[in-house]
Amino acid sequence: MATTRTAHTEWEGDLLHGNGLVTFDSSGIGEYPVSWPARAEQPNGKTSPEELIAAAHSACFSMALSNGLAGAGNPATKLDTRADVTFQPGTGITGIHLTVVGRVPGLDEASFVKAAEDAKANCPVSQALTGTTITLTASLA
User: What are the two backbone dihedrals, phi and then psi, of residue 120, each rounded to the nearest 5 degrees?
Assistant: First the structure.
């Protein structure tokens, strides 16, 4: 069964001096301010599209890796995933780096790295971001 999730943004003003409010409609988890300076300079308590992509990517990758490990008979006890999305004004998103540290009893490092590479290639957010260079560092705790 397909699902659709919805968020919306209300924006006021021009790009450089305006600001917006992103609302997570489906989950109702809140509203988050967004602005150009938060995107191109310092966050100063506001989010950016790149931070939202990083959140989505780290969550999706963690789910895919967890599923792959469990399916192979090696369930993880913990996965700590970070996504760093790099934005260059005037160019756009120039890359995403995923870093994952896992606790997977009975699994060797090489097998964990292989599972992480598979999750990176196959999680739906990675697939949606094809055309963007996605790199990975994976290790066991």
Answer: -60, -40
The letter for the amino acid at 105 is P
The edge-to-edge listing of strands for the beta sheet with 78-88 is: 78-88, 92-103, 134-140
CATH 3.30.300.20, applies to 49-140: yes
- Tokens standing for 119? 């999750």
Average pLDDT, the chain: 97
Under-50 pLDDT residues of the chain: none
Q: H helices within the chain, ranges in order?
A: 36-40, 49-71, 109-122, 124-128
Sign of CA dihedral 61, 80, 30, 132: negative
Q: Which two tokens stand for residue 137?
A: 């560092």
Q: Are 111 and 74 in contact (CB under 8 A)?
A: yes
